[in-house]
């Protein structure tokens, strides 16, 4: 029998609430979308702010998926591709999205991947990643 740790819905809701609260601290920000996925890239929870564009929503899910499936931040994946002179299309997975804003959620006990958090919509990937890290902290791992 396997004993596999996983993210719980209550944890993910707390993380989403923390990201929304962080976003709301600056009312001049552009609309964003936030997603949390499990270790296989399946969506656990999603939220978007008012007037969020559909592409922004898709990108947040893809950033979370990329972080979980590649076991690294989506921005680090982009850098890896650049260093290796590779293209994301070589992977044959249209969900992989090599732009900053996705963070991998690791089990502090054994380092296994629990999932990913993706944020999209702000002018820079670093701003997206900063909000994702607020969610990471709120997971209380």
Give a written overview of the molecule:
The protein has 141 residues and is of the alpha+beta class. It has a single domain, classed as Haem-degrading domain (Beta-Lactamase, 2-Layer Sandwich), CATH 3.30.450.150. The protein contains 4 helices and 4 strands. A 4-stranded antiparallel sheet has the order 2-1-4-3, sandwiched between helices. The two termini are 24 Å apart.
Number of helices: 4
So, the CATH homologous superfamily?
Haem-degrading domain
Read across the widest sheet, the strand sequence of neighbours is 2-1-4-3
Quote the distance from N terminus to C terminus.
24 Å
The total domain count is 1
Global morphology: globular
Query: What is the CATH class designation?
Result: Alpha Beta
**Computed CA radius of gyration, to the nearest angstrom:** 14 Å
Mean pLDDT: 96
CATH topology annotation: Beta-Lactamase
Fold blueprint:
Elements (H helix, E strand, L loop, with lengths): L8 H16 L8 E6 L4 E6 L5 H17 L3 H11 L17 E5 L6 E8 L4 H14 L3
Antiparallel strand pairs: 1-2, 1-4, 3-4
Helix pairs in contact: 1-4
């Amino acid at each position: 029998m396997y004993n596999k740790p996983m993210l719980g819905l209550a944890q993910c809701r707390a993380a989403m609430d923390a990201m929304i609260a962080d976003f709301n601290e600056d009312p001049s920000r552009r609309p964003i979308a936030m997603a949390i996925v499990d270790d296989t890239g399946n969506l656990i929870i999603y939220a978007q702010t008012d007037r969020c564009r559909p592409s922004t929503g898709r990108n947040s899910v893809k950033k979370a998926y990329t972080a979980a499936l590649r076991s690294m931040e989506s921005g680090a994946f982009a850098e890896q591709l650049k260093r290796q002179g590779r293209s994301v299309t070589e992977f044959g997975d249209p969900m992989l999205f090599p732009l900053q804003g996705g963070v991998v959620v690791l089990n502090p006990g054994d380092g296994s991947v629990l999932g990913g958090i993706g944020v999209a919509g702000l002018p820079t990937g670093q701003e997206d990643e900063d909000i994702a890290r607020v969610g990471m902290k709120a997971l209380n791992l």
